[in-house]
Structures are given as C-alpha cells and as structure tokens.
C-alpha cells in the first residue's frame, strides 16, 4: 500500500476520493440451497478475509469467493509483473483456491574463465552473471582474493550459480568479510556465499582465518525487491497459504532424471542459509504454508533408510538422499512447516520403467522417510501416462485423447497397469501404514489440467501440451477424491488461463459451472431400518437425483433424502459433503458393478458416474 501513503495529503484529497471504491454486493454468488427437514446445516465456511475499500494500480482487493471448486491449490510460474501476481491470487481465490505453490530455480555447477567470469553450458561468458564485479574484478575472482586475504591457503575449488526473484536479508551470510550483497545497478543484485568444500558451515569467520581450505562459491543472481514478501502479503490479504520452492538440486550429468549427489553439501549449505534467513524474516507468518521440493522424480518402488550403515545406505535412492539432506534443514530451522513433493506416475505397460500401483505405494513409504510432509502425486492423466477408468472398464478402448501416447487399438487394461484410482487407493493405504509408524504425512492429488497434445496449445512454455476442459477435470477429481485430503493442480498459468479467440478459458469454465455435482465415492449405509447409499462428493444438495443401475437391470432413479446427516470421513478435502439415498442392496447380484449417475436439482449431470461393487 505504499502508493496509498504517497497519495495522502491535502493537495491530493480529490485524487484519493477519485480512486475510492465501495464494493457492491456480489450478486453472482449462488444462494444457499434450501434444505428440507432431515438435513442439518452444512459446516460453516472459514471466514472470508476483509475486503479493502480502495483500488490501487493493480486493481481492487476483491477477496470474495464467488465460485468455489473442488481444486483448491495451484502452481504459479514466477513473473516480473507485480499486478500479474495480484490478478492470479484474486482469480484463484475466487474459485475457492486457498493454496499457491510456486515454481523455483536450480543450483548449477559452472566453469569460469581465466578472469573468473562465469561461463554458460556452451562455454561462453554467461550474460546473467557477467555484470557481477567488485572493484572491476569479476565476483568469483574477488571472492578468491578475499578468501586468500584471510588465509593464503584458502582457495575456490568449485563455482555454483543460482538465480531467483527473491531478495534476502543478512541471515544468508556467515562471514561478512567474504560474503556480501553486491548491488550493480538499480535492478541488478547479486549475493556471494562461501561454502566449505567439506560441507561444514562455519558460524563465523574464525575457521576461514585459522587454516587454509578449499571452498565453493555460490553466486546468486537475485532481485532488488523480494517476491516472497510480496507473495506472503498477498497470501495474508486473501487468506491463502504460499509454498515457496526450495533450491532445486543439480542434476546428475550421467542421468538427468536423478539428483546429483556430488555437490549435495553445497546444496545443503544454500538451503540452510535461505531457510535461516526465512526464519529470521517470516517466522510466524500464517501465509507461509510450507516448502515445495521442486526436483521431480517418478513414483516407483525405491528405497530410503537413512541408515548410517554404508551397506544399507548403498541401497538408498540417490535422489531421496538429496531430498533428505534438504528436508533435514527444514526440520531443524522451521519444523512446523511441511515439505510438499509432487512426483509423477508412469503406468504404461510398454515402458520398462513403469510401475504398478503396489510399487508406487512402496515409493510413497520411502518418500515419507525422507521427511516429506505432503505427497501430492501428479495423476499423470495430462501426459497420458495413466488413464481415468474404472475396474469394470479395463476392456474398453483407451480414451481417444490418450491414443497419441499409448498407441491405437488398445484397451485400458492392455495399455496401463492400473487406473488413476488404483494408484491413489494403494498410496492411501501406504499413508495409513506410515502414519501408524509415526510419520506425519498427508496424501494430496495433483490433477493435471492439460492434455498430452492438442490443437489448442497454451503457449511456448507448455510445449505440445494442450488445454483440457472442465468435464475432464471433474472426472479426474472423481477418480482421486475418495483417497486424498486436498486436490491441487499444475498449473494456473497457463493451462487455466489460455483460450482460443472467442472461447472461454478453463478458469472461466469453472466459474460458470463450479457447482455441478462431483461425486467421488458411494458406500452402503443403512439409516434406522432402511438400507441405502451414502454418496460423498461436492455440490450434492437436496433435490439431487441418483440413477442406479447395473448390467441387465433397467436403472432406477432415487432422490436424495438427506444431506450432511453425518460428516464426511476425517481427512477428506474441504468442501466435501455427504448425501443419503434409500436403496435396497439385496436386489443387487453378487459382485455386480453398480453405476450411480448423479444429477443436480437444475438438471446438470455429473461428468462421471460412480462405479461401485459392494460385497453382500
């Protein structure tokens, strides 16, 4: 609100008055459903943050939730435009989003030339780091000069670079004689950090003077203004949680999908410095939800023991070792903030590296042992690596939009080891086992809001991926919603915001159709002496109808007789409700798959019917 302060004063009272705005009531917010007898009130929603009465250069702080949807968290790509941040938070919050996860950057080892200038991967001087000079000397050379001044035996053995749009406080430094903030001009800022080669991290300059050692220099290209402070301020204003990214580990040069164990000590030092600076500046901030581990890996059968026994530790997955080294820092510095990781699934049978649902469950357990607090696996439907289908649909043809990925002429069971629901069911069971062992870990779902390919790509950043539609996104929520405590999506920009001329974006589709029924589960549940079905999901008020049928049986339609007669199971996503319909299960043949098609009071049908089979 610095702009507002600047406007104060008698001379510009008229200008202030011109920009004051009293927000009208939100006529677009749907009225609550009338609820006949038998239905207690739904749980009260969390308080909506206060609405500002003034505009600013980026537009008004409109904090109303106008169209709450089942997906409540989104990834964001960094941007230099402050108004874009504001607009994204506002748009996400209006569809019920309460969580933002931001993409981060990676730590990279780099060569330097004879003058100490940082080189890019092609061997040319990297223009991003070339402006960093001290007294006319490139920053890396200046760092070595300053180290030698403390002890002639000191030297730099390796150079790392890191870029960010954040600005740090003094908490990132240990020894100000060799570590410093270098302001080149009004827009260009660098931080120079010195990391002992052996992985230790001295609290003062004393060890740098007492004996000569090899050091790694970390050169950070940063920002003048801190983006994280801005994001947390927006989070406070909109009542949202922000998950900034941890530094991304360097990739193994021999296998790019694996984190490099070489240099992990330097990654740990950088992580520690940044987290301690966060602790100094942001401890106690309600909007700081946790931290995102951005190094992506495949969810599969992998081991992590954390053992000190070399023979046991040799079996640990290299990437999980790197994870654990970073996660330990978070637990030491900010133990109340969980770490979120979002691995991908690979279910295609023709891939040698694919994994079955049970192998993925083993991977979940290994991740929990590294200190991860939230596992939000990508459902991988957007890449075509997993399909959305039910057990009784294994013999049906693969979705047409997935055929470019798996090939023509295949059934679901031929193409995939299992469906999205199969994988999340096994991971939910794995989570239960880990909680019983004392691990505090949650299971979220990251539903991908794109298609493997399409005629409507969203821009150069998205490659060949095309936009999807709300119907397909609803289907994904139906598949995962029973097993997770939250549904998030990669990513808001650009997959939710892009659109061909004259067509609505996915975000606009959600806003228009947010209250369509989305059932996620159905269980047999009698009430008093009457048999019935409890349907769990979103937007299932009184007046909703359930069409129930199975093979060889003409479907029958039953109206919901009560909603929220009992709360949803513990740990289900916010916004989940329950609806009960009377139904005599004794008429269903043993092992028959029952299809339950849900239609709202206004005639809108859920995108996906439930397929259930209940042992009688």
From TrEMBL:
Residues annotated as domain DUF4434: 222-496
InterPro entries attached to this UniProt entry: DUF4434 (IPR027849)
Span list, region Disordered: 29-49
Name of this protein: DUF4434 domain-containing protein
Organism this protein belongs to: Planobispora longispora
């Amino acid at each position: 609100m610095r702009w507002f302060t600047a406007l104060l004063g008698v001379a510009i009272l008229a200008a202030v008055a011109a920009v004051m705005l009293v927000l009208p009531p939100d006529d677009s917010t749907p009225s609550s459903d009338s609820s006949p007898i038998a239905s207690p009130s739904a749980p009260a929603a969390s308080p909506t943050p206060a609405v500002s009465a003034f505009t600013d250069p980026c537009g008004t702080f409109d904090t109303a939730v106008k169209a709450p949807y089942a997906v409540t968290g989104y990834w964001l790509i960094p941007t230099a435009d402050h108004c874009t941040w504001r607009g994204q938070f506002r748009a996400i919050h209006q569809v019920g989003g309460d969580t933002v996860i931001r993409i981060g950057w990676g730590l990279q080892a780099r060569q330097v030339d004879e003058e100490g200038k940082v080189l890019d991967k092609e061997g040319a001087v990297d223009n991003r780091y070339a402006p960093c000079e001290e007294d006319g000397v490139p920053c890396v050379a200046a760092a070595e000069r300053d180290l030698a001044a403390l002890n002639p035996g000191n030297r730099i053995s390796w150079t790392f670079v890191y870029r960010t749009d954040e600005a740090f406080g003094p908490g990132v430094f240990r020894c100000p004689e060799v570590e410093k903030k270098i302001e080149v001009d009004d827009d260009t800022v660098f931080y120079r950090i010195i990391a002992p080669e052996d992985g230790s991290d001295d609290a003062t300059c004393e060890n740098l003077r007492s004996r000569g050692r090899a050091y790694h220099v970390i050169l950070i290209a940063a920002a003048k203004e801190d983006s994280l402070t801005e994001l947390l301020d927006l989070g406070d204003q909109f009542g949202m949680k922000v998950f900034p990214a941890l530094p991304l580990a360097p990739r193994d040069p021999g296998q790019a999908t694996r984190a490099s164990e070489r240099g992990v000590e330097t990654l740990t030092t950088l992580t520690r410095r940044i987290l301690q600076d966060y602790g100094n500046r942001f401890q106690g901030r309600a909007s700081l939800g946790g931290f995102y581990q951005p190094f992506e890996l495949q969810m599969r059968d992998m081991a992590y023991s954390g053992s000190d026994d070399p023979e046991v530790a040799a079996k640990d997955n290299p990437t999980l070792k790197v994870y654990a080294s970073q996660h330990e820092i978070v637990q030491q510095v900010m133990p109340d903030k969980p770490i979120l990781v979002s691995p991908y699934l690979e279910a295609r049978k023709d891939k040698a590296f694919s994994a079955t649902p049970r192998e993925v469950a083993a991977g979940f357990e290994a991740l929990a042992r590294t200190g991860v607090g939230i596992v939000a696996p990508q459902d991988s439907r957007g890449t075509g690596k997993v399909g959305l289908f039910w057990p009784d649909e294994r013999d049906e043809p693969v979705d047409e939009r997935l055929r470019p990925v798996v090939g023509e002429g295949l059934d679901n069971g031929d193409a995939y080891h299992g469906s999205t629901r199969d994988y999340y069911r096994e991971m939910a069971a794995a989570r239960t086992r880990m909680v019983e062992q004392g691990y505090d870990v949650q299971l979220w779902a990251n539903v991908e809001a794109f298609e493997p390919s399409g005629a409507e790509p969203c821009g150069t950043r998205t490659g060949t991926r095309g936009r999807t539609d709300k119907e397909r996104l609803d289907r994904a929520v139906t598949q995962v919603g029973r097993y997770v405590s939250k549904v998030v999506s990669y990513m808001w920009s650009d997959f939710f915001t892009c659109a061909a001329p004259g067509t609505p974006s996915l975000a606009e589709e959600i806003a228009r159709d947010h209250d369509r029924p989305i059932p996620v589960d159905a269980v047999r549940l009698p009430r008093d002496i009457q048999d019935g079905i409890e349907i769990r999901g979103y937007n299932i008020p009184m007046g909703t109808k359930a069409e129930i049928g199975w093979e060889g049986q003409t479907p029958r339609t039953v109206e919901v007789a009560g909603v929220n007669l009992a709360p949803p199971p513990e740990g289900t996503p916010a916004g989940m409700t329950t609806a009960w319909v009377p139904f005599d299960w004794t008429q269903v043949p043993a092992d028959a798959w029952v299809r339950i098609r849900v239609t709202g009071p206004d005639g809108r049908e859920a995108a996906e019917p439930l397929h259930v089979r209940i042992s009688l």
